[in-house]
Structures are given as structure tokens and as C-alpha cells.
Design a protein that fits this description.
The chain is built from 18 helices and no strands. By secondary structure, it is mostly helical.
């Protein structure tokens, strides 16, 4: 199972999406009286431009005031500010310090982020699977979906804990049930390929759909493949193309390659050699061997691109280097061997 551990970049609450100028003024009034909750919320207003002009420097200043009063949400937000250099000079070590303070107070989002830092050895911290697992577990047990997913991956891969597929699925399912797109995709894979679960293509399609509709590129591609091949759904190449396009626009390499095939063959779309070439090239640049071969063919034949044998050789060489037999033949052909 592919490693799907991820770090959450921001810790901003979603409850301020409708904040007005009047709300921001109320937060300011309370913040200036020393209310840490108001300080934090005023920081959010500046970070998002809600009721005030966006200003990441002022956001960080208000986060700092609240964080120094021990407010964990602000500590977590301030950590993100230092990690990404938002309104402050980037300082990963200080970011870890603030994540740690918030995590020690039991704030799940900080625990999740701190787990991520230890999982990949980020922000100047030495990689430590045991600490990563411990922090993910704390976040997961509080219902944090990202923590639940990453805890599941730890059990799947034996990261900081003994491998346990049953527990991996248990935690990943908890996250999926909360709508966590990455976990939904993961369950889809498991049901499709019978990885720790009885193979069930219908359930796989259900989970792919849930994840794809949230914009998760890998799921969009997988869902597209289901339509292209008639797996668990009625075969519908136009639907397949629509989902391939969504994933391709997010730089999913196999979606880009498959979209190129559709434009080349006219399956689900009108034939368009130029568009086919463009999608093949995007996939080729990401290392998709079949796409590299297709780009070589396009340059050799001048189909969808201006004929250029030097470039054909370049792409045939890349594909041939990893064992693509037709690319090797193309290389000989263009060289006149």
C-alpha cells in the first residue's frame, strides 16, 4: 500500500468564513482587553482577510499574543506561520517548539502536525517513527481524521509499531467515515484489489466516488478507470474522460497519459493530435514510460507536434532506458540503424 502520510499546512478554524467587519471589530475590542480567544480569532481575520484587509504580519502578531497566553489553537497557528514563513521569518525550529506546546496541551491538530514532522524528519527534526506514531495516536484518539489516517498507515507499514493490517483498516475507515478523502481513496484501493478486505468492486467504486467528488486526484483517476473499463459501473468513456481531465489538471501523470490516449483515438472526445501530444508530454515529463514513447512517436512522425528527430531520439532514449521495446526500435529507426 502506497505511503500516504501527509502534513497539514494550516490550523485555521472554518467557523470564521462569514466574519463581517463588525465581528472583526468585536474581536479587536476583546483582544485589546487581553482575551486570548479574541486574539486568536482576530489573527484568523487578518490571515484570511475576513472583515479586515488580509495581513499575515498582523495575523502572526495576534497569534503570538494569544500563544504566549497558552492558547493552543494560536500556538498551532503560530507554528504554521514559522514553518512556512507567513508574517514572520521562517524558523522551523521555532515552529516545532510551538507545535510541541500546543500538542502537550492536548490540541489534536498540533499533535497531528508534530507527528508529521517526526514521520518525515522535517523542520530540522530527526526522523523518529516511534514519536510519529505516538503523536498520530493521540490525535487519532481525539477523532482527528488526518491522525486516524496516518495512524492506519503506521499500522500498515510497521512505522513505530508492529504491522497490523486489521488495525490499519480500522483507523483508515474511521477517517474515511469522517469524509477524509485520502482514506476514502485508500479504502477504494483495498476493496478493488482485496488488500486486507474481501475484494468488492462495487464498494471500491463507492469509495472512489466519495473521494473523487472532493477533488482527490488519485481517486478521480481511479474512478475514471472504472468508467473506462466498466468496473463496478456501466462503461462510459465520456465519464471516464471527464474524470481523467479533473485528475490531469491536478498533474496526475497517469490521468494525463490516458487523456492523451483518448484524444489520439477519439474515445469519448473528438480526435485531436495536438491535445493528445500536449497531455502525453505532461505525463512524459513526470516519467510515464508509455507517454515518453508516445512523445517520441509524435516527434518522429510530426503528428501533433513539429517533426523533430533529435527530440524523438531524446524521448525514445528515456523510454528505452527502462526497457520499452518499441522505443528501442524507434531509436534504431530514427538513427537509421
Amino acid at each position: 500500500m502506497k505511503n500516504l502520510l501527509t502534513l497539514t499546512a494550516m490550523c485555521f478554524a472554518l467557523t470564521l468564513s462569514s466574519t463581517t467587519l463588525a465581528d472583526a471589530a468585536k474581536f479587536r475590542a476583546a483582544a485589546e482587553k487581553g482575551d486570548p480567544d479574541a486574539m486568536y480569532n482576530l489573527g484568523l481575520c487578518y490571515a484570511k482577510g475576513l472583515g479586515v484587509d488580509a495581513d499575515v504580519v498582523k495575523a502572526a502578531q495576534w497569534y503570538t499574543k494569544a500563544a504566549e497566553k497558552g492558547y493552543p489553537q494560536a500556538q498551532c497557528a503560530l507554528a504554521a506561520s514559522y514553518l512556512f514563513g507567513l508574517g514572520v521569518v521562517r524558523n522551523p525550529a521555532t515552529a516545532v517548539e510551538w507545535y510541541s506546546r500546543a500538542a502537550d496541551k492536548g490540541f489534536a491538530e498540533a499533535q497531528f502536525n508534530l507527528g508529521g514532522v517526526y514521520a518525515v524528519g522535517a523542520a530540522g527534526v530527526r526522523k523518529d517513527p516511534d514519536k510519529a506514531f505516538a503523536w498520530f495516536k493521540k490525535a487519532a484518539e481525539q477523532g482527528h481524521a488526518g491522525g486516524q489516517h496516518n495512524l492506519g498507515v503506521c499500522y500498515e507499514e510497521g512505522t513505530g509499531v508492529e504491522k497490523d493490517t486489521a488495525k490499519a483498516i480500522e483507523w483508515i475507515r474511521k477517517a474515511a467515515d469522517q469524509g477524509y478523502a485520502r482514506s476514502q481513496y485508500n479504502l477504494g484501493l483495498r476493496y478493488q484489489h482485496g488488500q486486507g478486505l474481501t475484494a468488492d468492486i462495487s464498494k471500491a467504486v463507492e469509495w472512489y466516488k466519495k473521494s473523487a467528488e472532493q477533488g482527490f486526484a488519485a481517486a478521480q483517476y481511479a474512478y475514471g478507470v472504472c468508467f473506462a473499463d466498466g468496473l463496478g459501473v456501466k462503461k462510459d468513456i465520456k465519464q471516464a474522460v471527464a474524470w481523467f481531465l479533473k485528475a490531469a489538471e491536478q498533474d496526475h501523470p497517469l490521468a494525463q497519459y490516458n487523456l492523451g490516449v483518448c484524444y489520439e483515438t477519439g474515445d469519448g472526445v473528438q480526435k485531436d493530435a495536438v491535445r493528445a501530444f500536449r497531455w502525453y508530454r505532461k505525463a512524459a515529463l513526470q516519467g510515464v514510460t508509455e507517454a515518453q514513447y508516445a512523445v517520441g512517436v509524435a516527434y518522429e512522425d510530426g503528428h501533433g507536434a513539429r517533426q523533430d528527430h533529435d527530440r524523438a531520439i531524446h524521448w525514445y532514449k528515456k523510454a528505452a532506458a527502462v526497457g520499452h521495446a518499441e522505443a528501442a526500435e524507434g531509436l534504431k529507426r530514427v538513427r537509421g540503424e
